[in-house]
Amino acid sequence: MHIEYYFDVLLVLVCVGVAAFAFYAVKKLYQGQR
To answer: What's the predicted TM-score (pTM) here?
Structure first.
């Protein structure tokens, strides 16, 4: 496995994880206000 490919996959996984966490946090906050 090439190291560049590994870093690209790792970067994508981190971005997806952060996006999912942010979406969950906003959804939780939105439900908390109601």
So the answer is: 0.62
